[in-house]
Known about the structure:
By secondary structure, this protein is mostly helical. The protein has helices at about 1-20, 70-80, 145-150, 160-170, 175-180, 190-205, 210-215, 225-235, 285, 320-330, 345-360, 365, and strands spanning about 265, 295. One heme C (HEC) binds near residues 248, 252 and 322.
Amino acid sequence: MQRVLIILALAILFLSASCEPDPPPHCDGCPEEFEDRPITGPASATAYSLEVPDYLPSPVVDETNPLTVEGIDLGRRLFYDKIMGRDSAFACADCHQQDKAFTDGRALAVGIDGRQGTRSAMSIVNLAFNPNGFNWDGAFDELWEQAVHPVENMLEMDEDWDDVLIRLRRSDDYPERFRAAFGISRTSDITQELAVKAIAQFEMTIISADSHFDRVVYQNSAFFTEEEQLGADSLFFVEDVPIGTLHPGCGHCHNKPSFGDNRFKNNGLDAVSSLDDFSDKGFGEVSGSRFDNGKFRTPTLRNIALTAPYMHDGRFATLEEVLDHYAAGGHGVENEDPNITGFSLNDREKQALLAFLRSLTDESLTENSQFSSPFE
Ligand code: HEC
Ligand code: HEC
């Protein structure tokens, strides 16, 4: 009898151990019934109010996805959990790494099995202030809609949502977390929509507002070096120059406090002979207008020193190359933005503009434990 009990105890131990792998918490060996079972535990989420410094714009509120402490926590887990990718082998965070302001350091993204994507991974920072759609071409209006696609994209995580949902429902950890965030009562209530809404809640909280620039200009707690000051005042922000004067004028499109107006523009990258010839049509594909071909969303330059290589296809390895591009003044393509004028800088001015761009780096973003992996 005693032996039977020991065997039984061992079997239970074994079974529960197979349902409880150390992070990431999911269960490949758990029985199918787990997909539809009642969930117990707390079910009322705690409202979360996003703290935004007064020098940043008001966040865009998504009425369909109110922020809660539990929702954000769940989203953070899903963002970092390889359970979301095929064979539980790829996470959002593989391409969006905190130490690189949530980019991946590559020109073109590399997904599961080393598959190469067609665009450069974007920085998942200050998305709360973007009203103009997500991705380089603004293809998705809502942040949570965006999160559906990396999971399914063959070149990214290459997974069926149905399989992700099976793993989440059978997990011995996620059902309680979904219940805490969204009040559901059965594991079968875990849906794609709830998963991506939780991820979007987490993404909304990733706010960067504590760069050297912010400390100098808004917090009055630091000073620019002479070089940074030159870069800021006489190169980056200058807008009112007499017509015909050539000037970097980066602030036309990358103005403070967001450092990117999120509008779709052609910043003169490609020398095409007709608007139909862009290899990546960008916003044109989304709007359906030929005149929008080759336009991409003007991204923020906050943390730009951390997010090389640059542009939608990562064509420039360094900020020096970026400046050389703008200085050359585009290619005269008919939908190029009129603020792409070309200019020339002496070496001192060039260094000053670079020093200013580096002042936009926010170390408190890359070190903030609220945004780091919950599994480490
Ligand atoms: C293989 C690398 C890769 C993976 C994995 C990946 N992303 Fe991305 N991410 C990208 C690329 C590339 C873009 C730009 C896509 C485009 O413009 O077509 C992007 C864009 C984004 C954006 C848009 C940001 C903006 O400013 O518009 C968000 C948000 C985002 N990803 C979130 C996620 C989430 C959430 C996941 C996991 C579910 C994820 N990503 C997985 C590479 C990746
Ligand atoms: C006419 C508007 C406009 C002006 C002026 C402008 N930019 Fe841009 N910038 C854009 C757009 C649009 C993009 C995205 C283009 C793409 O990837 O296809 C961009 C992209 C960038 C990027 C790459 C961002 C990333 O995440 O990869 C950097 C760096 C940059 N700009 C710096 C500058 C600097 C420095 C200046 C001034 C010398 C400047 N820009 C002037 C519109 C502009």
